[in-house]
Design goal:
Elements (H helix, E strand, L loop, with lengths): L8 H9 L5 E5 L5 E5 H9 L19
Antiparallel strand pairs: 1-2
Length: 65
C-alpha cells in the first residue's frame, strides 16, 4: 500500500523557496522517522520518485449576483 501525506500549499511554496534551510520529517506506519532534505525532495519530484497531487481547492464567492 502506498502512503501519502497532505501538506498545505503555503507550506510547500515556503519549502520550495527555502530548500537549503528546510527539511520534512515524516513518520511511517511503523513509527520509523525519515528526514527529507529540501534539495533531495525536489530531486525526488523531478525523478518521479514522489508525485505531487492537487488535493484541495478553495471556492470563494467574489461578487453577489
Amino acid at each position: 500500500m502506498r502512503r501519502s501525506v497532505e501538506i498545505a500549499a503555503e507550506f510547500w511554496e515556503h519549502f520550495r523557496s527555502r530548500l537549503s534551510d528546510c527539511s520534512m520529517i515524516l513518520m511511517n506506519g511503523d513509527s520509523q522517522v525519515r528526514e527529507l532534505l529540501g534539495p533531495d525532495t525536489i530531486q525526488m519530484v523531478e525523478n518521479k520518485v514522489i508525485t505531487l497531487y492537487l488535493a484541495r481547492f478553495r471556492i470563494r464567492e467574489e461578487s453577489r449576483a
